[in-house]
Specification:
Its cofactor is pyridoxal 5'-phosphate. The protein is of the alpha/beta class. It contains 13 helices and 14 strands. The longest helix has 22 residues. Bound molecules: pyridoxal-5'-phosphate (PLP). The site of pyridoxal-5'-phosphate has 11 residues, from helix 3.
Length: about 400
């Protein structure tokens, strides 16, 4: 017998895509407009200006119709040549995937290895840069917020390692699950290519991605020889909108205009970040509480690097995270993120970024605790009370 279809809204606590505010949904459902029309150009350029303010850059931005992978690829093919060395800071599934992409594109990938629960040692990065006296390394790639493990890598420390060694490599940062949720400052932190996507902190549907590009990176682009066509920044610069070689996905920009209004005018960017910190602390308080009695625990063990946009929760030995996620989904209509790559089945992830408030996060935590209870997973009951105490403080 098939179970009855659940009523009420599905609780969506994935770390991306994320919940879309109703006003953004409505704005996105805009009738078709001519993307060459000056009236659209006005909306478009206002969005580009807003995106630059969110990236905290006064430099260039190029956009693509495609998910975050598109912007990853664009950042590599526009800046590097066959056989160039890219040094990737290992952080988890997404740093590995970006590295695999770089290898497939014909780059030599070196890795600063790291414990996924603690994150890379900046001293190891600095040693790798110092040892590279010939400056074979052309780019350093870092995932600012590793969505698979719930860890934030401090970009100012990465920049400082490059500066301390006088290394000229370009700094490429994946901000896909940090932009609009965690503090990110492209120009101040000397990021040369900032990779971003629409479906997380920006609270839009999936399918628009972009790269913030520094002047230094634009110079490197002039001599970069990896093959490219759709992603070619030089060709984009010849277009009236300075992006998009093909049809411009106009509806995204009506949505983006609204999400920028919500972030900048209704709430204020600093308040957006503060809200993410507040909700993340509550999630961590709940998980830390559950971890008693050999319960589920925080995957990230480095307090300074715990992510304010996603929390990965490691299951006790012998308990399957995907079974727990099935209970949450099938019985209670709560969608949680799963473990990626080698972490499959070992952890689940609670996304707490984007359009989210206290009742939504408390509903999620209470339902996770319910799923843990009915799933027979050992834990210390009372995680929701710990979250309440955190929020009340
Ligand atoms: N990088 C990070 C940090 C991500 O979280 C994701 C997706 O979740 C990606 C890259 C890949 O982006 P997409 O799935 O939009 O192609």
């Amino acid at each position: 017998q098939t179970p009855p279809k659940p009523r009420g809204r599905q609780f969506f606590a994935n770390p991306g895509p994320t919940n879309i505010p109703d006003s953004v949904l409505l704005a996105t459902a805009h009738h078709t407009v001519d993307f060459n029309d000056p009236a659209f150009a006005e909306v478009y350029w206002a969005c580009i200006a807003g995106l630059k303010r969110v990236l905290k850059t006064g430099q260039e931005v190029f956009l693509y119709t495609g998910s975050g992978h598109a912007a990853w690829e664009a950042s590599l093919v526009n800046l590097l040549s066959p056989g160039d060395v890219i040094l990737i800071l290992e952080s988890g599934h997404f740093s590995q995937s970006w590295g695999r992409m770089a290898k497939d594109l014909g780059l030599e990938v070196r890795t600063v290895a790291a414990d996924w629960r603690r994150g890379v040692e900046i001293a190891d990065l600095q040693a790798a840069l110092a040892a590279d006296r010939e400056h074979a390394i052309k780019a350093v790639g870092v995932v600012h917020n590793e969505t698979s493990t719930g860890m934030m890598i401090p970009l100012p420390e990465v920049r400082a390692a490059l500066d301390a060694t006088g290394h000229p490599a370009l700094l490429l940062a994946d901000t896909i699950s940090s932009l609009g949720s965690l503090d990110f400052r492209m120009d101040e932190w000397g990021v040369d290519a900032a990779v971003g996507g629409s479906q997380k902190g920006l609270m839009l549907p999936t399918g628009l991605s972009f790269t913030g590009v520094s002047r230094k990176a634009l110079k490197a682009h002039e001599t970069a020889r990896l093959p490219k066509h759709y992603f070619n920044w030089g060709a984009m610069m010849q277009r009236p909108l300075k992006s998009f070689l093909g049809t411009v996905p106009t509806s995204f920009f009506f949505g983006l205009q609204e999400s920028l209004r919500l972030m900048e005018q209704e709430e204020g960017l600093d308040n957006v970040l503060a809200r993410h910190t507040r909700l993340a602390r509550a999630v961590r308080a709940a998980v830390q509480h559950w971890s008693g009695n050999n319960g589920p625990q925080l995957f990230c063990t480095n307090p300074a690097r715990m992510s304010d946009s996603v929390t990965a929760v490691l299951m006790p030995e012998g308990h399957d995270a995907d079974a727990l996620r099935r209970v949450a989904m099938q019985r209670f209509n709560l969608s949680l993120g799963g473990g990626l790559g080698p972490l499959g089945g070992r952890l689940f992830r609670i996304g707490h970024l984007g359009d989210l408030n206290e009742p939504m996060i408390l509903g999620t935590l209470a339902t996770v605790e319910l799923a843990i209870k009915v799933g027979g997973v050992p834990h210390q009951p009372g995680g929701v009370d710990a979250a309440l105490a955190s929020l009340a403080a």
